Amino acid sequence: LERTLIIVKPDAVQRGLIGEVLARLERRGLKLVALKMMWMSESLAEAHYAEHREKEFFSDLVRFITSGPVVVGVVEGPNAIEVTRTMMGETNPATSPPGSIRGDLALTISQNVIHGSSSPEAAQREVALFFRPEEILSYERAIDRWVAG
Ligand code: GTP
Ligand code: MG
User: Fold this and answer.
1) pTM, full prediction
2) 2-133 fold
3) Most-buried pick from 7, 24, 32, 122 (CB within 10 A)?
């Protein structure tokens, strides 16, 4: 089983889409094992998006992700990283297929509703950046053997 970090971004919180985004992940069968609402600090945002620090859009990205509250979670399941990325669609919502989160709920690259870790290394780093080990819960659901068997 893999774990990955998801962030419901400030645009989605403002638009009342927290439940919609989390519901899609839940319906897929992924298990939420950590969840919190927070307002990211500039330093946390810069650490989270460190890989983009040299990009011309970096300051806009940090300004956006710190512009309001976000919901941060850890989801667990078989291939959770790839499954979540596929469900998200492309970075640019304009080329994201209908049925994907960005393809159904977003229009522009700068306000694209959800973040999901892009690799096992990124997932491990990002989960540790946002959650202490004891905040990540280990529990069984009755449906686990039907979705993760
Ligand atoms: P995240 O899940 O947020 O990391 O998105 P991603 O993995 O699909 O894209 P990436 O990590 O490459 O970029 C991080 C974020 O930077 C994206 O979600 C966009 O909001 C923003 N971004 C990426 N490329 C561009 C760009 O060319 N222009 C602008 N304005 N923003 C960009
Ligand atoms: Mg990324």
Assistant:
1) 0.97
2) Alpha-Beta Plaits (3.30.70)
3) 7
